[in-house]
Design a protein that fits this description.
Blueprint (H helix, E strand, L loop, with lengths): L1 E4 L10 H7 L6 E4 L16 H15 L3 E6 L1 H12 L4 E7 L11 H6 L4 H8 L3 H10 L4 H7 L5 H13 L8 H4 L8 E6 L7 H11 L3 E4 L6 H4 L1 H13 L1
Parallel strand pairs: 1-2, 1-3, 3-4, 4-5, 5-6
């Protein structure tokens, strides 16, 4: 079983071109929706990084056998945490355009979301769908994906995003999230859009070198390389899974 885990402010729509490029049958994969992201929030769910990581471990456990797991953006961060917590549940892992790195201090929007009041003001601006779509495209999201995703960025998602980023102090990771990377399962892979304006290629190169994880760079692609370079990514994943 293959699990796909999207990031922020995305939904499982992100993975449609990749799933098509891989030629996957419906019973061979699950494109998970994070709670609050076009999916209901379980009662009492706190939307913190640890709550989401715990939720992801539960999804892995529910499969009943080791999984191939792929994550983008926050999905990548949660995948890294989950596979360190439960390496026994992992056949292989691959993350794209985000890694847990104590030297990385977050992009500008992440820091704004993590700041009380300022984050709420930013989210008020995201209610304007025209400006939101334009902003996503300016950040590198393919226009066709932006048009589909903006309809799902509702109040629940906006509030979930604020809680998630504040629990991570705007993507500044410390403590066990960093220390437990020593437990990373060996069968890993990085896929990175070369021109990502949010998490620079140097972050991926540092992670690759420190943890001895292969890095594939999609030249000229941005933060959503997993979507815009689906055929390229599919080829990499097929080779990764066959090893």
């Amino acid at each position: 079983m293959i699990l796909f885990v999207h990031g922020v402010p995305d939904t499982p729509i992100l993975w449609q071109p990749l799933i098509k490029a891989l030629g996957l049958q419906p019973d061979s994969f699950k494109a998970l929706a994070l709670p609050g992201f076009a999916a209901p929030l379980p009662e009492g769910f706190t939307c913190t990084k640890d709550a989401y990581a715990g939720w992801l471990v539960e999804q892995m456990e529910a499969v009943g056998e080791p999984v191939h797991i792929v994550g983008h953006d926050w999905g990548a961060l949660l995948v890294l945490r989950a596979v360190c917590l439960r390496p026994d549940l992992v056949s292989s892992w691959c993350v794209t355009n985000a890694v847990i790195d104590p030297e990385y201090n977050g992009h500008r929007t992440a820091r704004m979301w993590a700041t009380p009041l300022l984050g709420e003001l930013v989210m008020l601006g995201m209610r304007n769908k025209v400006r939101l779509e334009a902003g996503l495209i300016e950040g590198g999201m393919p226009a066709s994906l932006a048009r589909e995703e903006i309809g799902h960025i509702d109040l629940t998602m906006r509030q979930s995003i604020l809680k998630l980023y504040r629990s991570a102090v705007g993507l500044r990771f410390r403590g066990e999230w960093v220390d437990d990377l020593a437990k990373l399962p060996k069968r890993g892979q990085l896929f990175w859009g070369e021109t990502d304006p949010f998490v620079q290629l140097s972050v991926a190169e540092r992670f690759s070198k420190q943890w001895n994880v292969p890095l594939h760079v999609a030249l000229g692609a941005g933060h959503w390389a997993c979507h815009e370079r689906a055929e390229e990514f599919a080829g990499l994943l097929a080779a990764h899974w066959s090893r």
